[in-house]
Every structure is written in structure tokens, then in C-alpha cells.
């Protein structure tokens, strides 16, 4: 197998290729003066199985991924696996208001068209793990939660997991099982893309090392609101973990509110403490048989 890294997953692709003993594919990626993407495959991929690892955070990352997948096929690659540690648009997984585009489905269908197989990590539109499908597109969803809980468990003496909303309750329950502790959730109401309100309910977190766990932190608005609320109930410490750290408002908004914040490296950030490379490597090894 030849592993290619898109421009947003260069070090992850390097890690994975080393782990599985695969060649790291060579490519040239640049921008034309008008902003359009240019991509050229430099490795010989004829009759080879290839994987492209690209965390899709922006539209540019998406276009680059699509060019990668199609160019590899054009160059005679046998199987082309699209590995998407983070997949943008995954939160628009329903038509919330009539007439809206179902973006997650649209993006996934285009990627499916150009690849033999899709691998995601804790993608928002699938709560379970392993083989799954979304609007008939099949994919394998990997699970980074045990990596996060293994990192945190030795660092928290009286852990308790708090889901920041009802949607994350299943994930909090699962993380609590892995950590051998209790869990609870907070009632959140989203007012807009950047504003949430907390609907009050007493929280029995006094003296506990609270872990607020979410799949994605985007603006950070949810975490700030939830951390302020949790703080009122006198926990021993407030810890935050997420799989995908987007931090569109930077990290400063959390200053003085948290004792610890960590994430995986599906999206590289200054708090990427947990490497999903071995998780992806294990999955690609399975592919190799
Ligand atoms: C939403 O359903 C997700 O699970 C996260 O709770 C959400 O993306 C967090 O967004 P933000 O950081 O902008 O509050």
C-alpha cells in the first residue's frame, strides 16, 4: 500500500505509513494564482492499493482530497481508500429547516464516487463505530474515545463525565464506562451557530474531577457556557476533551475557566495530546490482510 498525506494531514500520513511499513506517496500540491488547486501524483501507483489521509476542515482541503482520489485512479491505482480523520459538513446531517442542503450526504456521496472505501474517525453523523452507512454511502467509523479516556484516566482521581448536551449523552455514558465512573448531561439549547443557552438543572459534581466530553469543539461557545455552569457546582477540577478541535475563536476564550483541555490530532492544534495515527494504521493493516 502507498499512503498519501493531503496538505492538512502531512504528519499523520507520515506516522501511519511508518506504522504499517508502507511507502509514503509523493505528490505536488500547490495553488494557481487565482486560488485554484493544482495536484500531481509523483509516485508510481499502477496496480497499487493507495490510501489518502486528509482531514477535511475547509473547502480547499475537500477539493484537494477529490483531486487526489481521482488522480490516483487515473494513474492506475487499484484500490483508493479515502481516510478522513475529520470531515467538514458532518454536522449538517439533517434538514433542520425546509429547503436546506443535506451537506453531509452531498459531500459523502462525492467522496464515495471517487474512492473504493471511506474511513472516518468519530464522525458526527454516526454515533456507533465500525461499518456503517449514511444515506446509503458505506464507510468505516473509527473510535478515538478510548484513546482520550486512557490518556485522562490516570490524571483524574475522582472522575465524572458530563455530556454538554443530550446528543452527546451516549458518548458520555460510554466514556464513563471506560473510566469506571458516573456520568450526567446538561441541557443545551442552540440559539444560533455561535450561541447556546444552558437550561439549569442541579449537578452533583462537588469534589469531582469533571470531564466535559464533546465530539467537536468549534467556536468553543458550548464548552465555555457548560464550564461556567459546572463551575457553580464546586467540582475539584474541570477537564475538557474532544475528538475534533476546530477552535474557530482560538484557545484564549477558555483561559481561567478550565484545568485541562485536550484533543486528538484529527485536526492539529496546540492541545492535540492524543495521536489517532495508530488507530488509522490498525484499520489500514486490516485492509492489507
Ligand atoms: C454539536 O452537536 C457538536 O456535538 C458540538 O457540541 C458543537 O459542534 C460545538 O460547537 P461550538 O464549539 O461552536 O459550541
Give average pLDDT, whole number: 95
Silhouette = globular
CATH topology of the largest domain: Rossmann fold
Q: How many discrete domains?
A: 2
Low-confidence blocks of residues: none
| Radius of gyration over all CA atoms, rounded | 20 Å
Question: Roughly how much helix do the residues carry, as a percent range?
Answer: 25-40%
Any ligands, ions or cofactors bound here, and which? ribose-5-phosphate
For the biggest β-sheet, the strand order reads 2-1-5-6-7-9-8
The CATH class of the largest domain: Alpha Beta
List the helices and strands and how they pair.
Blueprint: E1 2-5, H1 10-20, E2 23-24, E3 27-31, E4 37-41, E5 50-53, H2 59-74, E6 80-84, H3 103-114, E7 117-121, E8 130-134, E9 137-142, H4 145-152, E10 159-163, H5 169-179, E11 182-185, E12 187-190, E13 196-199, E14 209-217, H6 221-231, E15 237-245, E16 260-264, E17 272-274, H7 277-288
Helix pairs in contact: 1-7, 4-5
Bound molecules: ribose-5-phosphate (R5P).
Amino acid at each position: 500500500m502507498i499512503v498519501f498525506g493531503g496538505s492538512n494531514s502531512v504528519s499523520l500520513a507520515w506516522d501511519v505509513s511508518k506504522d504499517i511499513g508502507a511507502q509514503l506517496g509523493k505528490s505536488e500540491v500547490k495553488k494557481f494564482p487565482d486560488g485554484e488547486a493544482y495536484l500531481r501524483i509523483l509516485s508510481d501507483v499502477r496496480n497499487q492499493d493507495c490510501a489518502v489521509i486528509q482531514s477535511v476542515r475547509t473547502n480547499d482541503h475537500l477539493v484537494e482530497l477529490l483531486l487526489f482520489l481521482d488522480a490516483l485512479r487515473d494513474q492506475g491505482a487499484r484500490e483508493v481508500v479515502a481516510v478522513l480523520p475529520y470531515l467538514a459538513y458532518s454536522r449538517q446531517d439533517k434538514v433542520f429547516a425546509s429547503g436546506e442542503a443535506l451537506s453531509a450526504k452531498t459531500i459523502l456521496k462525492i467522496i464515495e464516487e471517487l474512492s473504493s472505501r471511506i474511513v472516518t474517525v468519530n464522525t458526527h453523523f454516526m454515533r456507533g463505530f465500525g461499518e456503517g452507512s449514511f444515506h446509503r454511502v458505506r464507510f468505516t467509523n473509527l473510535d478515538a474515545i478510548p484513546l482520550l479516556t486512557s490518556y485522562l484516566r490516570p490524571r483524574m482521581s475522582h472522575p465524572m463525565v458530563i455530556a454538554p448536551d443530550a446528543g452527546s449523552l451516549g458518548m458520555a455514558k460510554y466514556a464513563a464506562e471506560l473510566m469506571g465512573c458516573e456520568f450526567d448531561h446538561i441541557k443545551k439549547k442552540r440559539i444560533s451557530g455561535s450561541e447556546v443557552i444552558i437550561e439549569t438543572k442541579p449537578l452533583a459534581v462537588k469534589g469531582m474531577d469533571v470531564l466535559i466530553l464533546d465530539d467537536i469543539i468549534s467556536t468553543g461557545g458550548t464548552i465555555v457556557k457548560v464550564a461556567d455552569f459546572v463551575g457553580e457546582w464546586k467540582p475539584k477540577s474541570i477537564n475538557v476533551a474532544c475528538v475534533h478541535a476546530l477552535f474557530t475563536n482560538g484557545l484564549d476564550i477558555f483561559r481561567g475557566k478550565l484545568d485541562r483541555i485536550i484533543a486528538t490530532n484529527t485536526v492539529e492544534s496546540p492541545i492535540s495530546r492524543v495521536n489517532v495515527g495508530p488507530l488509522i494504521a490498525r484499520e489500514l493493516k486490516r485492509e492489507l490482510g
